[in-house]
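Researcher: Quick one. two chains, 880 residues in total.
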Amino acid sequence: MTERPRDTASTSPRYDVAVVGAGPAGLAAAVAAAEAGRRVVLVDAGGQPGGQYWRHPDETAPRGDESLGHHDWSTFTALRSRLHGLVRRRRITHLPWRQVWFVERPSVGDEPPAHTLHLTTSYAGADTGGEGPDAVTGDAVILCPGGYDRQLPIPGWDLPGVMAAGGVQALLKGHRTVAGRRAIVAGTGPFLLPVATGLAQAGADVVAVCEAGSITGWSRDPLAAAAVPGKAREALEYATELIRHRIPYRQRTAITAIRGTEAVRSVELSRLDREGRIREDAGTADVDLVALGWGFTPSLELVSATGAATRKDIDDSLVAVVDDEQRATVPGVYVAGEATGVGGAMLAVAEGELAGLMTARDQRAPVSQGNVRTLQKRITRHRRFAAAMHAAHPVPRHWHEWLSPETTVCRCEEVSYRQVCGARDELGAGDARTVKLMARPGMGWCQGRVCGFASAKLAAATEGRALTADDLRPTAKQPFTAPVSLEQLAESPRYE
Amino acid sequence: MAHTADVVIIGAGALGAACAYFATEQGLRVHIVERGEIAGGTTSACEGNLLVSDKEAGHELDLALYSNQVWRRDLAPYNHLWEFENKGGLIVAATESGARNLAELAGRQREAGIDVTDVAADEVHAYEPHLTEDLTAAAHYPQDCQVQPMLMAAQLIRIARERGARIWTRTEVTDLHRDGDAVAGVVTSRGTIHADHVINAAGTWAGDIARLAGVSVPILPRRGFVLITEPLPRTVFHKVYSGDYVASTTSSDEGLQTSTVIEGTRAGTILIGSSRERVGFDSTVSLPALRQIAAKALTLYPVLAKTKIMRNYHGFRPYCADHLPVIGHDPRAPGLWHASGHEGAGIGLSVGSAKLLVQQLTGREPDLDLTPFAPERFDLVEAS
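Model:
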């Protein structure tokens, strides 16, 4: 093996454990590793801990109702106060407003197999700060990148007033802002419920929740729901809220087209069959806000950048392969949270805590085996619940039949469904990567984070086969895990 | 079921596509076999340059000038399909000695038939308003062009298919079908195809195909990175590069070399290259290489300091020790033809190479003597 030229690994600040992401998984991981005696650096794109799930108003201007709209808020505040204590005692170095733009892998034979994370100011932090070293090295790294809204193009989805359900939720939680007056929430999965009730509580008129699947899907594994009693209680609360606000819950129904010129004016609803084909017209609704939720896509860029193995999960997401102690297939890399499989915040917390403990144990620090077993049992229960949820709420198999030739597939590069079909039918593009190279979907600013899942799904659907991990991998494979300025790339890193 | 064709082409990159186009133009029945997807190899990881400016006088320049004519004349009706742009090239020098070297290079190229205009330091910004002030001289090459390489390959194959060509993608050639000494087809993972001629257009992997015929075609990978920016309003108008690029393309050094090459694209992104390294097929992204490319680019375009890099290309140029491609019939294995080894110039040289090869294949005198590109030339070197 030849020695590769190293960039900065030998000189950047070195930690026992580098954690990326301060959402439920990353927060739990950093705290657990630090309390087990590790020196930890916690890198986060946000300015304050919590991630997307526990997004909350600015902590520097505290208000009494911080927990409004949140579940498991006490779990967060407990983790946050442990974090603050550990930061004060210099056990954790917290680097907010920073994101990783490049992962430098260890050389063959390095012991420990340390990874160097090259950092840049995050998009969100551009006006606020993002001071700190340009790179940090972790003898172990725990990747907790979370996920983002999975989106499916439909006619009119690019009109102003159409938002991802998670985006609507973020405005509610982070800014207490309601994105419209008359709203409809559609897609699939339990996440539609908090978005609808959150909008209603904030004063919007929610005309319906449209669920493409059916709650009878849960009957395949009724015990899964019972395995996590908190979830059932949560569902009951939402159901009560829907009734209180007189919001109809329409199953096997989808928004199959959105109409408007300058902005959304109305939506067209359709009844679906089990496979997601349009069975019959289900009327229209006049709205100024459409919240679409098709589940979540884990961020796999960092995992891919380490070279760790990935697989397709039950919900058609690309996820990291991990063992039952959160180790990825590459030495020194651990993954926790949505990137190992979408399953919600409490699963993420358990995985993060386990990953933190395992980095400590793998670095020969004492760790209670009882704690490890308890966490593993909790993870198994939550996984079973998540599997039942995904089985009951699949992305409609025939979704692509809702598209018209003019439907925009890629918003960044303004690529239509017709152009995607042209690359395939006329130019012979046989997979998602080749379609991307020829017609440019996924080549713009978001690098396929919005349309990557849809493009992969289209490639598989048009061949009449199921989606594979290989359809999904090209979007995750980004050597630049975040945009970086030419200037920063050119300069030698600073560590102050 | 037995499949037959006049010509089997191995590889659906730029060279394979161009061969399919010119062979079907002559009425030949063509069958393309591709291990991956159309334009999935080096063709999908390059800028799509059609350059004469980066070549010293010699056989490669003769081929580049010939190919330039093929693009402009033979393919004129189709050039819009692959975003053909006659943007022109601009070589710049930043030192007094660099200016002298550039003037000498331009002089030699002019004698060899290249259209080149000397540009004084105070005239450079009329060509490229955003270039650094710190330049000593430049040379403008109006013949330099650019295409979108994936579209070029895919569209040429589309045209060939309309003329009856067949294509199997995701199909690996596992052996060559032999008739005595002669190559008479290919054995693939989807079955055997009988053919009078087999064209090896496997690019960086052409040596493996040659080996199936028991002959040596010493093509090696030479790794390269190109940085790609966020889309911007047009900032770079020509293909702009520094004078040391020409020295770097013709060097055989194994270590990392970088030299600045910058150009805009139709999509608004700016492509920033380039690096050359002989590291086999190592696909690890090298941060030191990317940093060097970035630093050198900023000396030419300080205005790009805040521009975001979104991603990079990463490919393996098919490279021969004498920096010349391998084109034509292989007398050591009758029936086998090669069209590979064009290093970093494959897109530009593809259509000229393919047209000449098909002329030879159909028994005509090639417009340009193919002897310098003969596949067996390396055996002669080894024997002597």
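Chain B has a mean pLDDT of 93.
Researcher: Thanks, that's what I needed.
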